[in-house]
Amino acid sequence: xxTQPPWTPDSLAARLPFLRRRAQLAAAVRAFFIARGxxxxxxxxxVPAPGEEVHLAAFATERVSPTGERRKLWLHTSPEFAMKxxxxxxxxxxxxxxxxxxxxxxxxxxxxxxxxxxxxxPGAGMAELIAETHAxxxxxxxxxxxxxxxxxxxxxxxxxxxxxxxxxxxxxxLLATAGDAAAxxxxxxxxxxxxxxxxxxxxxxxxxxxxxxxxxxxxxxLTHWPAAQAALARRDPAxxxxxxxxxxxxxxxxxxxAFVELTDAAEQRDRFLADRARRAALYGAETWxxxxxxxxxxxxxxxxxxxxxxGFDRLAMIAAGADRIEQVLWLPPP
Length: 334
Hints:
The protein is an alpha+beta fold. The chain has helices spanning 9-35, 80-89, 126-140, 162-169, 181-188, 198-210, 265-283, 292-301, 312-320; strands at 39-40, 46-47, 59-64, 70-75, 94-101, 113-122, 144-147, 150-153, 158-161, 220-226, 235-236, 239-250, 253-260, 305-311. The chain contains 9 helices and 14 strands.
């Protein structure tokens, strides 16, 4: 890792091959969606509510009006709420390369400010969105990619439910133990930690045993998440214990998170309130008003659709064979 400031000629020269590949990738992504009838949109970055994800922290800012009135705003963690309002208005199918912010993040794979590729297709289900995501990978990347020492063949994919992944890699019946941390621990052969809930253990096992072994040889679509881990996704009509959510893993990295979208405003409000209570209990963090405008839009009527958020910087890492996210950023966040 360079110790030089990122603005020095030598530092930029070291990143330039990756950055040129990033620019080519952005052009290819736009061409892919435009050819499929999508419209590119832009939505505000400073918003009254940045999102309701329990484990994400947001950056606060303030708007001062010409008359001196002050209003607290937040830098969004995703453009999801705004893009769904556009779906209600009839704008879809739509995509966006959005700058987003997540406080407290930073590693070889994380930046506190990064680019999210997000798109929504009205009328699509999970199978259609998986197929379209695979088509995007095939269109903008070579048939095989190598990143961080892992080579993945993009010509085919693996689709695996979360329950199947836990049966295969953890040795546990995830859905049968739902809510029972002791039962899940016993089946997984681990000891419960002090104060560890079923959700805590679920994520410990997911991060420790499942994610390190998927998305290696082939891209893996990890589907049908426990309903409690998919706050914005519709429950599966065939099995309400799970929601129609998937995550995509390529070269061993989580690349995207997708939902068949929840369109019921009352259920969405209940889930938001539950998530806000969990976030307050876990972090006691400063919060923001509930996004009533978003809930009003859902109540007005959002078309059935599927949507996905894909980390564009990680896609650029895969395209360029970069080891660290800073290599594909023109100027890393200060």
